[in-house]
Each structure stands twice: as C-alpha cells, then as structure tokens.
Amino acid sequence: METPPGECPQCWYHAHFSREAHAHLAPGQDCPACVDHMRNGCPGTARN
Ligand SMILES: [Zn+2]
Ligand SMILES: [Zn+2]
Q1: What is the value of pTM for the model shown?
Q2: What SS3 class is residue 19?
Q3: Residue 44: what pLDDT?
C-alpha cells in the first residue's frame, strides 16, 4: 500500500482502511491518532 503524494500516511490509511486502522478501538471510541491530526495538523505534510 502506498500513500499518494501529498497525503498524510496516517490520515490516508485511517480514512481508506478505517476498519483495520481502528480495529483496536471500542465502538464509538474516537481514534486518538485521527483526533491528534485533526486538531494539530499532519506533521510532514503541507496540509496543516
Ligand atoms: Zn484513526
Ligand atoms: Zn494526518
């Protein structure tokens, strides 16, 4: 799996493979990684 250029690998993965990326979360629980990027932006990308 390759992240498209300019995309945040974490956000891309969590968006497109949500079931895998969030498999460890309880139902309805927020994903800490996603919340972190939503609030603080994505390190290493221009999309802040
Ligand atoms: Zn997530
Ligand atoms: Zn991100």
Answers
A1: 0.81
A2: helix
A3: 75
